[in-house]
Design a protein that fits this description.
This protein has 102 residues and is an all-alpha fold. The protein contains 5 helices and no strands.
Length: 102
């Protein structure tokens, strides 16, 4: 595993985006589809992927937890549902490491 680098929300906000959003906005549907075909990360993903997606409402339990202010601010910056997003990140971590101690 590589070195973990942490940034404060202030540093993240000051970083210049490396995305060419103007170019992306000018792309036609055909150009986007061609880029998807050439992208190895898109292998196996097609227009119907959502048809196979399932949502599952799991039982929740309230706890008292403290998080760093910048972590909370980051998740809140995306608007409503920040606690669900935090839960999704924790779930992804748990699932990725579930068998580490087996």
């Amino acid at each position: 595993m590589g070195k973990i680098v942490r940034y404060t929300s202030e540093v993240v906000k000051k970083r210049k985006s490396q995305s060419d959003w103007d170019r992306a906005a000018r792309m036609t549907d055909e150009e986007i589809e061609a880029a998807d075909r050439d992208d190895p990360e898109m292998d196996g993903i097609n227009e119907d992927w959502m048809d196979n997606a399932t949502t599952e409402r799991t039982r929740k339990r309230a706890i008292y937890a403290k998080f760093d202010e910048d972590v909370i601010e980051y998740f809140q910056s995306f608007g409503r549902g920040y606690q669900a997003r935090m839960n999704a990140v924790l779930r992804a971590y748990m699932e990725a490491h579930r068998n580490d101690n087996a």
